[in-house]
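Intended use. Records like the one below are meant for learning the mapping from a protein sequence to its folded structure. Do not use them to infer anything beyond what is encoded.
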Amino acid sequence: MKVSDFDYNLPEELIAQVPIKNRDTSRLMVLDRDKKTIEDKIFKDILDYLKPGDCLVRNITKVIPARLYGKKEDTGIDIEFLLLKRIEDDIWEVMVHPGRRLKVGAKVIFANGLLKAEILDIMDGGNRKVKFEYKGIFNEILDQIGLMPLPPYIKEKLEDKARYQTVYAKNEGSAAAPTAGLHFTEELLEKIKEKGVEIANVTLHVGIGTFRPVKVENIEEHDMHTEHYYIKKEDADKINNTKKNGGKIIAVGTTSCRVLESVADENGFVKEIEGDTNIFIYPGYKFKCIDNLITNFHLPESTLIMLVSALAGRDYIMQAYNHAVEEKYRFFSFGDAMFIK
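Structure written out for the chain above:
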């Protein structure tokens, strides 16, 4: 299977630059895999497609303001950090720019010394292992001086940091938002619970690798990025009970999907577990746990459009994406949603 099999033509003006005013009034394209139909709805209509006894599984990771601008201590040159992953305590893996300026031992000062960093090692791929020094609480300092790490295709300034978080974000650690969840409001989630739908949580810290292009022509040769996840027992129990009682598992986003498919046994049951996953889902994959998926529209030739093609079929997904372009849906992180039922 070739990367070019997952290409489509996207006019640049359809890439959403800012979030819609009300989260749950974004558009929702509903794909019925049995009937092969395409319906145009509003996101809050998702309530009509969820049934009592179903289980909605969402990723409660929280994006950290991971983009930092500082200066190299000895020369004063401008340096940009993007925090990727906490290795231990105050030691992080970071992407740096310009990288050639930062050898082992170099020091970077942020916000006039509120935060300092020393380069400990140069990692594979050019990322740096750094140790931070500060007084106080690291996350509070980040909130004060860090910026949200918006994807490269978003050029507009984000006025409200909270709009790049889900309303249920809890566990800090992501360098990108699980964007399918951005459409939910507290009120909509309450209505979903009132309908008798179970809500279970997983955590997968989204890495910047989610935006990395597939650089090999044969997709089976792609080296997938790794991300950290965990599921707690109470949430595993909710998912398993839904399975046992014949309800459907609806994953909110590809991140929730990747966690469930990484940990599920051959019968689709999951357990309390923590680990790292580099699962790569593309057509031919047999889903074990999830039944339906709520997702945004993904970049051409990306691993995520391959994932949704595995669930719904490549030709059907390409037909849906062409429909989205014709109907001027909004694309990517701040864009509209799709429900694959």
